Amino acid sequence: MTMLQASRVDLRVIGEPRLLSGLDHGRADRHRHLSTHGAQPDLTRADYTKLAEAVGLRGRGGAAFPVALKLADLPAKGIEAVVVNGSESEPVSRKDRLLLTLAPHLVLDGATGLARALGAPHVLIAVHDAEAAMSIREALMERDDGLAIEVRDTPGRFVAGEARAVLSVLEGGLAVPPGRRVLPTRKGYHRRPTFLSNVETFAQLAVLARLGSKRFSSTGLISEPGTQLLTVDGAVQRPGVIETPIGVPLEAVMQFSGAAAGPVLLGGYHGRWLPHSGGVVLKRPDVSSGIILALGTDSCPLGEVHRVSQWLASQSAGQCGPCVFGLAALVDDFDRLVKGDPSGWHDAERHLGLVPGRGACAHPDGSARFLASALEVFGEDVRLHLSSGSCGRHVKGVLPVPRGAW
Ligand code: SF4
To answer: What distance in angstroms lies between residue 380's CA and the mean position of ligand 1's atoms?
Structure first.
């Protein structure tokens, strides 16, 4: 186990470091990157597809889509762009901005290597963190990939990180998902076939291209080998980003981070609550965006969830009725429930059945998942609030929510 401190985020490793290798002293410039990882091999599209398939590589954003299937969905010719989605709009997540800031060449290797293999002339990197954008721009000055590579700033709103919202921004439009659900592999950047994935996916591709499938599979699960980056926060003594083998027990990560006992939120604010960390191994799709939040036992769980519900409602892009009105209604339901009004509980149960699957993006579905799992896991707290108007604990703000967000 290693502990690193860089760019105001604690970095730690359980097991063998791969993505975080060579970052003990901070940002890896081109020289340090090459001395740590070696040169990037020149692979073909068939090579990337075979490697991604052999190790079952999945995207490291929220959707965890298999990379080999995404590659297979692209046409044989005419691929317009490779897009690195570094919007990282979950307020707790740090892993992608950390990679862009400290290991920019690893991300660039993954993106440019794949762009060359696909014959895509453009590489676009969407970032909303200023330090990360500066680091990538500096890295680009240290290399010549023979491609048109652009770094574009994106807004920090939650739904601005959705793939189609990112494409809209890159084309000069608004940072909201368009009404239609279309795959970027068919109609992406300027309606042309595009390979779009999350920052960590490209760093993993760069590692996979160098190691090959056999060495890549020397850690992690047989069904999903390799490592993963997790962002751990909340009621923990050591918040930060951890690289672990895939399949590591959640309990080990919690102990490693000095987490208080109590419920755990897995997968961020579109994720689900667990009553405790026992008996769970961390793998996709459950781990989703790699965010783990410990709640502890000192703060009112329903009050914490209500705070986050206000933020989630404030992040709606305001264009789909079930999302705008449904999330606002759920905020009101949870407000009444926290105050001990049984109608709040009944209305929340009813609205949670109506919201999912009716928006142009997954924001209402993810928000409903988060709130529904809270009602399940915090059943005893619901009972206390309804019988006594409180669970006896104040809301301490353990779950981070951006200030002034609503
Ligand atoms: S579902 Fe909500 S967040 Fe998504 S596009 Fe519609 S209004 Fe915007």
So the answer is: 32
Ligand 1, atom nearest to 364 Cα: 1
Q: DSSP code of 364?
A: H
| Whether the Cβ atoms of residue 134 and residue 236 lie closer than 8 Å to each other | no
Does this model's pTM top 0.90? Answer: yes
For the chain, the C-alpha Rg in angstroms (whole number) is 21
Our answer on whether the CB atom of 319 is closer than 6 Å to any ligand 1 atom is: yes
pLDDT of 1 higher than 70: no
Q: Which atom of ligand 1 is nearest to the CA of 317?
A: 8
Mean pLDDT across the chain? 93
Q: Judge if the beta carbon of residue 127 lies within 6 A of ligand 1.
A: no
**Which residue's CA is minimally distant from atom 8 of ligand 1?**
317
Q: Is 164 in the pocket of ligand 1 (CB under 6 A)?
A: no
Using a 10 angstrom Cβ sphere, with 0-12 exposed, 13-18 middle and 19 or more buried, the burial of residue 323 is: buried
CB 124 within 8 A of CB 189: yes
- Separation CA 125–CA 122 (nearest Å): 10
User: Which is nearest to 37 in space by CA: 51, 52, 18?
Assistant: 18
From the candidate CATH numbers 3.30.70.1620, 3.80.10.10, 3.40.50.2300, 3.10.20.600, the one assigned to the domain spanning 227-294: 3.10.20.600
- The Cα-based distances of 303 to 10, 219, 337 in angstroms read 28, 40, 9
CATH placement of domain 301-388: 1.20.1440.230
Q: What is the pLDDT of residue 3?
A: 44
